[in-house]
Amino acid sequence: MYRALQSRLSIALLSGLLIASLVLTACGGGAAPTDTPAPQPTNAPKATDAPKPTEPPPAPSFSGTATITFVQEPDNLNPLYTSMFFSSITREFWLKGLWSFDDNAEPVPQLAAEVPSADNGGLSADGTTITVHLREDVTWSDGTPVTADDFVFTHDMIVSEKNVVQSRYPYEDYVASAEATDAHTLVIHLKEPFAAWQTSLFTYVLPKHVLQPVFDAEGTIDNAEWNRAPTVGVGPFVFSEWESGSHLIFKANPNWIAPPKLEQVFIRIVPDDAAQEAAIIAGDTDIGVFLSSDQIAKLEEGGLVDVVAVLSGYNEGWFLNVNPETAHPAMLDVNVRLAIALATDRFTIVKDLLLEDINPVNATFWDSNPPWGDPSIAPYPYDPEEAKKLLDAAGWVDSNGDGTRDKDGVELTLRYITNQRELRKNVQAVVQQQWALVGIGAELVNYSSDVYWNGYNDGGPQAQGLYDIAEYSSTPNSFPDPDASSGWLCDQISSADNPDGANWQGYCSEEMDALLKEQATTLDREARLKLYAQIEQLMYDEVLYVGIWKDPDLWSIHSRLQNVRLSGVSQFWNAHEWTVAP
Amino acid sequence: MVNYILRRLAQSIPQLFIISVLLFSLMQAFGDPIATLGARTPPRPEDKARLRRQLGLDQPAYIQYLVWLVGNDWMKIDKDGDGVPETPGTRTGVLRGDWGNSLVTRRPVLEVIGDRLPNTLLLMLTAEFIVIAVSLFVGVYSAIYKYSWFDNFITTSSFIGYSMPIFWLALMLIYIFGVNFKRWGLPYLPTVGMFDPQVGKTPVELAKHMVLPIATIAIISIAGYSRYVRSSMLEVMTQDYIRTARAKGLSNWKIVMRHALKNASLPFITLIGLDLPFLLAGAVVTERIFAWPGMGRLFIDHTERADFPVLMGILMLIALAVVIFQILTDVAYSFLDPRIRLS
Q1: Of A474, A466, A467, A516, which Cα lies nearest the Cα of A491?
Q2: Per-residue model confidence as pLDDT tens digits over A452-466
Q3: What is the pLDDT of residue A484?
Q4: How confident is the model at residue A155 (pLDDT cuts 50, 70, 90)?
Q5: Summary mean pLDDT of chain B
Q6: ipTM value greater than 0.95
Q7: Which residues contact A252 (CB under 8 A, 6 or more apart)?
Q8: For residue B21, what are the CA distances in angstroms to A371, B68, B74, B280, B316?
């Protein structure tokens, strides 16, 4: 018996050792690649990849496959039925709009002959009529010409009651009508001047000749075969196949005005972050996205993968509740809000939890959206002594000696909410400690994302104001346009009477209302920049938003895929120039 | 026999009905299907209100269940949002074969499930076949040569396999055989997916991509099954009729295969009968890590989005499979053990 036990133990030990050695070799990973070309110097990640020279146009022959991993599968390919990031980024391959945006977030005409402006007569003096001249040489991938009727049809489908579309923005808000004055002239009549027209109108177009018959027969295009298998498109590639949960394939479209060099783009759905990381390191994928700063060193280790940071407007930040009905009484005092900001060392948080170069502390809501973030505004400094003075002066002192300040019997304990993301939980824990040093208490609450974003009537904690500080990463409505007006307008304050209101911070001032409304209809860029400087200064003085870090999208690009210039708006805008090294 | 099967099938109808009511009420707690719509920023309140109305999510739960079950083509719905129902509904309901449309992909539920089921069956049935074959061999061998070196080795390693967290095991296999073997210039296995896009979806590619996920499932599952076979074999081997068979002078092989294994397999068949329907549900973790487009991932993805039409479809499919496999298990019993009569 003893013998049997002994031999079993030794076997267990041996097996344990075997597994431990396997694990160590797996984690070590220090061995130099043997089957790969010489490592190239690793570039430090930068805001946007530097433009690389494009090659002279070769004969129209296609070669090579670019493999991309998506951590989420697109819901649907018809842009009417999804607002998913991973669906919209495919459109630069197969469904172009009037113009794309390049790696400097500047418009590049696609189906339009030029971007309308006051100078070229495309934009009327009062800003309510936009005339777009379409290129006459563009055809759908099946050879049918693209005409202004396709755009009118697209507009009609979006606003039709018969289609259960995801969003009608901005058509139901701003567009009075869209009209085809001739085959290649599209006239858009606006209800009022709309500053964000360039980034939000007709970023895609639907093929009328394919979908009109479906609409006539079924009364809706909700169930059109095209939504899932859009074999007719307009772009450098054309849809070829989509196997649910596995992959999507787009093949070269020789009919596009700028034929691609690659033969196909293969998109593989890899839902697990760790598995995506392994696939990137193994070279099984050329492009990966939704990476985090802590993965960069590991991914770039072999010298074959470059991680680039692309600004897409997102900043991680705090939204402070100043609604007298729902917020902690201390939150209504601007000096207390300033003390909260001064008592939080976001600089150390960024240094410890992220990469300072990629995720510096941001000052305004627009810092990741140049040029709209005012560079003269600096982040609130870390100054706990000043914070204590401000709190003392505001009457918040620790009168009962429990370590937390109080006033009139109310403890200064703030409800600090966010979702379940691990990184955010770590930030919460650090902030709780930092606040304790100045006598501010923190109640940390984490919601699942769907609950966190629920509306007022569904008990959403932000919508109902059940918080003092809410943290998340956010962007203006239609990056790179800066418009973010709905969040701070008086008439948008959410309440039982106005459950759909988008102002969840309860902020209301005549000055802010006037500025936000004016910028939304100001078409002159210089004038609008000045308005934004005023808006940001007001927000800074009122301490409505505290920036934590700039939150660019991190992409991995394998060195075998060349000429990739990612945009923060229309990510794959230059896919026609991509090549793969033989 | 036929009568028995028909009666069991008839009994299962109220069973399935009750299950559907329970599941549908549980779905109400899954969250709001249009809270995020999978976007990076939540939808605008105006769009949410409109979508809720157009998709019928503003109706009370019992109405939604009724629509799910029998459709809404007999009533009128309010499509334009003026509060007055004016458009006849188009749903025909589960009882008439309409499982509704996914709230996520907007495609018919049966299509959504039909896309994934073959992949899951390919992976899970292959894995199950390997697991059963290996467990039978290992279990029988360890029972016959109990406490031998082989038995001890298998016991230890199967417990190590059994106690490893599946996500860790899966990632380790990827890093060892997919990443590091490639670095070291050894023959390596692919990391994720079903095939290499450069090569195409060939049987060889599929087989290569199946090695690691199946190894993951097998390492974890063989332990349980083989222990089961081993203990029931041990029990049977001490029975009088085995001694009688030995006394008759039968060869060891015949004793084990004809007399011992046939009887020892009864509880094993029960176990497999209980497990088989759940193969349809796929392997949630394994499918996710190896990016295998199966049912497990479908379930998780659509749970995150509270897509109740698809979830109801998957769960009802599994419920149906459980009912059917229970009947099949009972039938299998009567073949293996002549003492059992179905009536």
Answers
A1: A516
A2: 888 888 788 999 999
A3: 82
A4: very high
A5: 87
A6: no
A7: A62, A236, A237, A238, A259, A260, A262, A263, A264
A8: 56, 11, 21, 21, 11
Chain A neighbors of B156, CB-CB under 8 A = 8, 11-12, 15
Helix, strand, coil fractions of chain B, as percent rounded to 5:
70, 0, 30
Contact B325, B272 (CB under 8 A): no
Asked if A500's CB is within 8 angstroms of B46's CB, the reply is yes
Average of pLDDT values for B297-306?
88
Task: Please give the DSSP secondary-structure letter assigned to residue A43.
Answer: P
Q: What is the DSSP string of A153-189?
A: HHHHHHH-TTS--S--TTHHHHEEEEEEEETTEEEEE
Query: What pLDDT score was predicted for residue B221?
Result: 87
Cα B210 from chain centroid (whole Å): 17
Residue B188 structure tokens: 């390596």
Query: Longest C-alpha distance within chain A, in Å?
Result: 97
Q: With a cut of 50, say whether residue A40 has pLDDT above it.
A: no
Residue B307: exposed, middle, or buried by beta-carbon count in 10 A (0-12, 13-18, 19+)? Answer: buried
Interface test with A, best of B27, B28, B32, B40 (most A CBs within 10 A): B40
Residues 6+ apart with CB under 8 A from A329: A407, A410
Of A75, A162, A275, Cβ closest to residue B290: A275
Q: pLDDT by residue (tens digit) across A341-372?
A: 999 999 999 999 999 999 999 999 999 998 99
Question: How much of chain A, in percent, has pLDDT values that exceed 70?
Answer: 90
How far is it, in rounded angstroms, from Cα B72 to Cα B54?
13
Pick the residue of A67, A222, A281, A316 with the most B CBs within 10 A to test the interface with B by mutation. Answer: A281
* Cα–Cα distance measured from residue A365 to residue A544, given in angstroms and rounded to the nearest whole number: 10
CA separation, residue A222 to residues A89, A217, B81, B201, B323 (Å): 21, 12, 18, 31, 35
Chain position carrying tokens 């019997």: A409
CB contact under 8 A, A502 and B44: yes
Residues in chain B: 343
CB–CB of B280/B114 below 8 Å?
no
DSSP 3-state assignment of A238?
Answer: strand
Nearest Cα of chain A lies from the Cα of B124 at a distance, in angstroms, of 16
Q: pTM for the whole thing? A: 0.84
DSSP for A502-533, written as a single string: -B-S----HHHHHHHHHHHT---HHHHHHHHH
Q: Mean pLDDT across the stretch A390-409?
A: 95
pLDDT, residue A556, reads: 96
pLDDT at residue number A143? 94
How does the average pLDDT of chain A come out, rounded?
88
Residues 477-536 of A with CB under 8 A from B: 499-502
Average pLDDT score over residue span A416-431: 94
Residue A545 in contact with residue A469, Cβ under 8 Å? Answer: no
Give chain B positions within 8 Å (CB) of A247: 193-194, 197
Cα maximum dimension of chain B: 88
Q: Could you give the CA distance from residue A481 to residue A500 in angstroms, rounded to a whole number?
A: 23
Least confident of A250-259, A533-542, B286-295: B286-295
What DSSP string runs through B234-249?
Answer: HHHHTSHHHHHHHHHT
Any idea of the CA torsion for A434, A440, A441, A445, to the nearest 10 degrees? -70
* Exposure string over A82-111, b if 16+ CB within 10 A, otherwise e: bbbbbbbbbbbbbbbbbbbbbbebebebbb
Retrieve residue B155's tokens: 């016991």
Q: Are strands A441-446 and A413-418 parallel, antiparallel or unpaired?
A: parallel
Q: Over range B65-90, report the average pLDDT.
A: 82
Q: At what angle do helices B308-336 and B109-144 cross, to 10 degrees?
A: 40
* pLDDT at residue A59, as a whole number: 52
